Amino acid sequence: MTLKPSYLSFSAAKRLALFSPLLCLLLLTACAPQQSGLQHHQYSIVRYHDSLTALHDYRPPARETLSHTARRELQTAGAAVSQNGSNVRFTPIPDEEFDDGDIEVTPELLKEPSLYPALSLIQPIKETIRVTSSFGPRKHPVKRRRLMHAGVDIAGNRGEKVVASAPAPELTEYFPVKVWKTPYMGTEKSIEEIEAKREIEYRTLFQVKKHSGEFMMWSNAESSFVQCAPSDGYIFDVLVKNSGGYKTFTDMQLIPVRESDYEPSIYDPETGLVQGQDYVTPNSLTLFQTESGDYMFPEDVHIYFRENQDNDDDVKSLTFRFYGPDYTPISPSSFNQTDWANLIHGFNMEKTDEYVKYDVVYPMPLVEMKSKYTNKDGNRINVNFLYDRITASGYRMTSTMSFEFAIYKEAHWEIIVVFTAGAPLFEDGK
Length: 430
Prior knowledge:
- The chain is mainly beta.
- The chain is built from four helices and 24 strands.
- The chain has helices at residues 71-83, 107-111, 169-172, 191-195, and strands at residues 2-3, 14-19, 40-49, 102-104, 131-133, 136-139, 146-149, 153-154, 164-167, 174-180, 198-204, 206-208, 215-217, 234-242, 245-257, 262-263, 284-286, 301-307, 317-323, 347-351, 355-359, 381-390, 396-407, 412-419.
- Strand 12 (206-208) and strand 13 (215-217) form a beta hairpin.
- The termini are far apart.
């Protein structure tokens, strides 16, 4: 996969929302134009900007102007000229005189256009373009001398939303990520066996898979440096090639959502703040009764995710704890029909009267694949807590609680289950 420079047109951008809680998300398959196999991709990606900054006071009051600054490109060109020993004179402009992309014109520069960098311009407004000052030499309206105008000024209504491209190095630079070299099967017997199947490689945080066309966002893409919703995100094009030809998919919009440590999440994906309650509830609750004989409902059970920041062991863990409404611990052994050994894909299980703890590898699930530990879609862990007892009528009743979840952040996590309506009835004969 090869990155190319950013060339964009901004007509009816397709809004593509990507989430980044998993190692990767496979959201869209880019189809080849012919029947032969997909062979090659190119894609470009730039930031999406939607505000206009002040340029100069000399603008007519009824319009805004845009121009493209090429300071870095010109500095690069000047360095190249110096290295080649050319006699071409390169005259840089002080920063305070460079704020709308103007450069000094010299005869040598005009004779050799290749020394001036080519710029890829985009349409920044939806209305018909009206150019108020074109690219090339002009008499500067403020400095009152002949300067090279390194851009195109376009008229627009004051306050109008505009679009301007900027590089997006946070998505195109390389970061260390864990890549599967051998497929995860869900039958591995140790953490070492799992880790032996993964290696650290350097990848761009946003990728299009070469042969499948799948879009991937690696888990290293965090909202601390990646533009997330409610930002408009990024615009990108994808070029698909095979032996039958090629096709370009343009104006695709990538809007990452703030990363989530776990799901179901209590946090707003845009603000990162707790929305409503600070707990979640089980997916189903069957034949659970309180000690007073009342039946429970899923909303009577509050489930909390807590990160144990006091545990500094290198091997990460997941712990389950159970409490009554007054936070009196409930022994995991009370759930006597639970298959604790195969509850999750964990190792070195430690079971006490207060908790059950496993050594695990995150994220959970490790890959989106159906296994005995996951739901039918393979995208969340599915745990079932069961117990049975003999009722007063003499028949055996089995009670079941099911909960689906995913954890993405590597840490020592605890899942705390609180029965708010009353402790479950475990005793026989009632």
